[in-house]
């Protein structure tokens, strides 16, 4: 599998977004959101999404030049309208606003409505780490998951991202959907021609299946038990209803209806640690928590205990040095997009000489 420099993929994606009408700043944010996902090993939310997002911009489902508006504003809270812009753009603006409010009030909570597909929630949550804060992002989305006990789609898997700074250890970063597997992972398996484990999805008849293409053919993701379903309901309320965003089947599938506005919602929370205690002491305590958990005796067959975000941090370090691997099908997509826009596709890195 060929590997690509993250900077090359980022520049290429930004040029594609700019070619579809995004400002330079918004194109850079949208590109960075995708490549950051690839770097951290979440390839289901990386450049594989480029064809879908660009199609949404071309066909009017997403607004390339959104005029984001603040609808309600208070010292620690705000409600913003994303004007149908790409979700990464709306989320970036909302989290930056939440960070500024947290710097003044200790916490900042910004809810966004009329947005689009957000990408990974970790991306905007981790913006708070740059200011030494805790960040949280929650979003709702198109129904792709069955309720606990249900046999067809009724609710989004409504992912959540939480990022916490540490001292010497990697930040603790939870990035999860409320389904057994993210829909993007299922679509990635279909792209690769691979089966998926049983228990991930149901087919259109409500039967368990290992065929990933069944999801796009009217299938449904399975919730992460009754607790995952319960969290998805809370995400629908906090990210959707609270800001008067669209919810449930009011939200069209962004990848299957590229001409329709998604109008989904996000919730963004920033917490200034300094408002509660000394920051250095907090970071050391997070390191202590990490170390003590990792010292737990292991079950048979387990090699180590990993905290949320630890595997992703290792992937980011490795792929920053050695490049991001892209399957042939995704390479072909990038070449097609380059031809469509009159651009030169990114070149793979030279393969290391074999010993």
From TrEMBL:
<dbReference type="InterPro" id="IPR043144">
    <property type="entry name" value="Mal/L-sulf/L-lact_DH-like_ah"/>
</dbReference>
<comment type="similarity">
    <text>Belongs to the LDH2/MDH2 oxidoreductase family.</text>
</comment>
<dbReference type="InterPro" id="IPR036111">
    <property type="entry name" value="Mal/L-sulfo/L-lacto_DH-like_sf"/>
</dbReference>
<keyword id="KW-0560">Oxidoreductase</keyword>
<dbReference type="InterPro" id="IPR003767">
    <property type="entry name" value="Malate/L-lactate_DH-like"/>
</dbReference>
<protein>
    <submittedName>
        <fullName>Ldh family oxidoreductase</fullName>
    </submittedName>
</protein>
<dbReference type="InterPro" id="IPR043143">
    <property type="entry name" value="Mal/L-sulf/L-lact_DH-like_NADP"/>
</dbReference>
<dbReference type="GO" id="GO:0016491">
    <property type="term" value="F:oxidoreductase activity"/>
</dbReference>
<dbReference type="Pfam" id="PF02615">
    <property type="entry name" value="Ldh_2"/>
</dbReference>
